[in-house]
Task: structure prediction
Amino acid sequence: MEIAQFGSERRQFVPIDKIPLQMQQAVLAVEDARFYSHSGIDLKGLARAVLAQFTGLRDYPLNGLPEADHTR
Result:
């Protein structure tokens, strides 16, 4: 039974146990590599983001291209 729908795209819920472990690990590696080492709030990452916001500095990975800004 669907209670509500958000957004204009039709999406289908997939339980976490139906997503292959390698896909879960790949998402974590890209989005939050320190996921298993903090308690839900990555204080080091948060401090880095705040500093970058106020100084205009951005993280650049080895390829020299700016990383996606997921906070906007």
Observations:
- The helical segments are 21-31, 43-55.
- The chain has a mean pLDDT of 80.
